[in-house]
Amino acid sequence: MPELSKQYDPHAAQKKWFPFWEHRGYFNADPPKPGTTVVKPPHTIMIPLPNVTGALHMGHALNGTLQDLITRWRRMQGYEALWMPGTDHAGIATQAVVERRMIEEEGLTRHDVGREALVNRIWKWKETYEKRIVGQQKMLGASCDWRRIRFTLDPVCTKAVRHTFFKMFRDGLIYRGKRLVNWDTFLQTAVADDEVFEEEVDGHFWTFRYPVVDDAGHDTGEFIRFSTTRPETMLGDTAVCVHPHDERYAHLVGKKVRIPLNGRLIPIIADALLADQELGTGAVKVTPAHDPNDYACFQRHPHIGIINILNPDGTINEAAAQGDPFSRDPQGSPPLAAKYVGKDRYEVRELVIDDMAELGCFEAVEDRKIPIKHSDRSKTPVEPYLSDQWFVKMGPHTTPDGREIDLAQSAIDAVESGRVRFFPARYANTYLDWLREKRDWCISRQLWWGHRIPIWSKLVNGEDWPDELGCQLTDRQLARLIEFTSLNPAWRDRVGCAVSEGTTPGSRLLLVCVDDGHPEIETALEQAGFLQDPDVLDTWFSSALWPHATLGWPDLDHNPPLDLNVLADQDETDAHFEDPEADSGTPAPGWGNRVLPYFYPHETPADGNKSVLITSRDIITLWVARMVLTGLYNMGEVPFWHVHVHPKILDGFGQTMSKSKGNGVDPVDLIEKYGADAVRFTIASFAGETQDVRLPIAYACPSCDHLIPQTLEHQTAKPAVGDGVKKPTLICPKCRAEFQYTSPNYDPDPGVPVARMVSERFEYGRNFCNKFWNAARFAILNLEAGPGGAAYTPAPVAADQLALEDRWILSRLASVSRQVDEHLSRYQFDAATRALRDFTWNEFCDWYLEMIKPRLRGGSPETANDRLAATRQGSAAPGNNVAEVRAVAQRVLLAVLDSLVRMLQPFTPFLCEELWQRLKELAPVRALPANAFRDSSSDTSTPPSGRSSQDSAASVMLEPRSAEEACIIARWPEIPQSWRDPALEKRFERLQETIVAVRNVRAIYNLPPGTPVKLLMRASPEVAADVQSVAAQFDTLARAVLEAAGAEVERPAGAASFSLGDADGYIPLADLINTEAELERHTKEAEKLRKLIAGHEAKLANPNFVSKAPPQVVAQHRETLEAMRKQLASVEEIIRDLS
RNA sequence: GCGCCCGUAGCUCAGUUGGUUAGAGUGCAUGCUUGACAUGCAUGAGGUCGCUGGUUCGAGUCCAGCCGGGCGCACCA
Q: Residue A1084 CB closer than 7 angstroms to strand B?
């Protein structure tokens, strides 16, 4: 076979293996065919659907890596592992980005192009970015079942949205109500809370006064003073509020005041929540339609009324001047307010101040910094604005047919009962705290991109619908509706009806909801003069249904359709491309949809389905909570058992990453520089439970690839304006090249080299991949026939054929494989990564491979045999020739390597597939852990469980087995835990300590690596025998020849010494010895020991410690103390000798 | 204001239910290129675990307070 290159080439592997996996259908997950008796347990992960707004960033890369890791791990464990891909239409964000581009490039607003054309443009945008997103995910190695890709606006999801809305409407859970929204007067749309930013602006704090009037409406001469930062809202005041305990105003509560500007009389009310006695004058004006707190106050005191004074464009409307439905100034003074109508609110503010001053009602003004909410999109201040919205009721509710529903409570119960578990557990707080407020969910958005609200409405005469307000369907209303609209009575189960207050006095608004799939009813309604609601649904309404909608709900008769066009390279025809449902004939009614019941959670967690949601903490409320409650509402079961919340990625300064901040690293840049495996491995190593991840960013020099750390100045730098615009540049400190870099503030000049944002920390993964690649390369070179001997042949390996290092590495392998399983099952990716890295690098490479080199080279058969004989300790030696020794080493080496390749596959899949396929050529049949793999010929319905093997000296530990056709579907290793041998590991540790001590002496005396040294060891006979049994390794690992070992060994003159717990070592150096340096070294060592001994002695002298601490801890201290005393004695002896 | 989290080596982070001498990667220092790997090997230096107090025989770990940082939710006439 072609020799492996010295360095791992990630890009070649990525190019080769992703299409290979995809074409062979390894990513596909399907329910068992009808009639199948053996059923694999399902495992489902629903992707937190990325927005089609733009390309993926590091957060997605982290999120995707972890999901893929778990999916690949579960797949190898024998689960039918589905990772469901898809994207979100992300209403607000996507429409905003397309609108912004339209205005920048063509100067067009959405009103210029119209609803249909805008939506068409956004669809085009969606196609482009969905393709890009899928490309990025595939580049990372995402093993989603791409045939099942969904989009929240596609027909499958739309069905689910329509039907859920209909169900909720008929249950009375959806209602129409008023709500204060953040209104962008420039774009004339509502914006979400997370789309506004606060900015302190210089403002003023004015104090005015309203005249108090008597019952007849005449001024009493008394005034009430109040302060405001927004004087124009006086036009919409409907009350003045004081604290109920405020004695200054107690006599005024219940009286009225006159708004001098428009002559309206409004009451003085007492409300402890709104008014604060300490603040300002203690009295506060109430403008329910334009202030959230005032609105809340209005809800507590509905009699005060509510007046909207703004037009959608921010100008003052008629109602501000004259629309006074309540009471009117009997004095009939001419309202000044008429002249405000049609003027902008800020202009009116000034007029109001002037007029109030003229009327003698102005008291004072002071400067003040005021936090003002601004729209992210238009950068203009937003106004609180009262508008009609649709809501879902979150708290307790009785349906018209008498069922009790409490959506929020059901989701609370799911977590409190432990049915849904958070990892880490603390995130359950965020979820529960939010749900417990049971705030109704506003689901309407004034946008064009999204699911249009399936409500048709018509304004009717109130006399036709007296006293029937409300959003609950009654049979009587329905019958009336059918009669009224001449709808077909057969449609009565497909529509819901509600009546709401109309826009003009006495009128009623008839609201009709139509179930999914009935365009004929929609047409009939439109012919009857009904109009569809122009708004669309909150994006989260559709994504809340994601876990069951993607599996085909509410269609229980058909499996959800597959999209075979998304697969890479469709030219290649392959059996796996076929729709597995194509041959299943006419689906049975009822549960003809087999995908939904199989992959949607339907058993208790103990029963195998380990479906998990892996997401970031900022959507625990918006998304996770809503998926749980809609899952329970529609499916009667939670959508996942586990929720893993992973950390967020921050830049080196602790800021969240975003393109607009100039710190948004593109994962594709990282993959190009370091390779997908390295990026995945590094990301997995980040994903711990406690902290967010800081990722210091650097720019890669485009000419020499040197990394230049990013500073905050780089993030904010802007081109200098002057004669000719000079863009900021960097100068590479290494190659002196000057170049531009990616910035949020400007585009680099076309054609010039640009430094990309990367991060040095990914070298961690790259180096590891290269290390493992080379370990495999070493193994492969030694499995082939060569100067060391024959090529690898498969054969069983028994315990008594193993050398010390073989037993040791297998013992360690057993520990590590268990750790990896435990860490992954708790979503502790950092710990799993560390365990694998440490084992691979520090144990397998640094010690095991070094130790078996002599055996593989066939160069030192005697020592190898000696060691074998010694390790066996008395058992008869089988085949003691060079070839046999090499063959055993090859088999053990391959077995360990095989397990490692399997265990690393979920982390670094491309690398592992590459190695797997190469090993397959060389060794299609391998010695693998006996009993550790399920027999591949019989699938069992339960996942594999650990089995212990009989561990007698002659028992077969490794058995030849055929390797699977691909690493991605290879069995996950279950190493017998009986292989663990703590006593042997302890012996091995002494060997390691001794070798490090010898190397230390070599380093101190700067002995050339080629020069052998002599080593004498003084130890008890037992320890000495053990040391002698591994003598050859001293030579291999430290170029030290063990001259003698035993209790009688004496320290020769002119020797460097070291002292371990239970043995002392001497290395004769004759003239080389530096007595002073040796003395200093040992004196230091002695001092350290004395301190520790003193500490231990004090502890043991404390009667409380001896009596209260657990006996094993006390015994442990005694033992340690004893060992340290011995060691100190040795060191002191050496010091005496030296001086 | 309420809640959650974090503060450990120059930097980025581990540290299981409290229990021997607090670890890793990177950076730093020194020495190594004859066959797995310089994206490498070996050795070493580097930490009063944010501060104060408490519980305990024993605290990086538990409790309280403080300081510093992050996030979420409220509030801001």
A: no
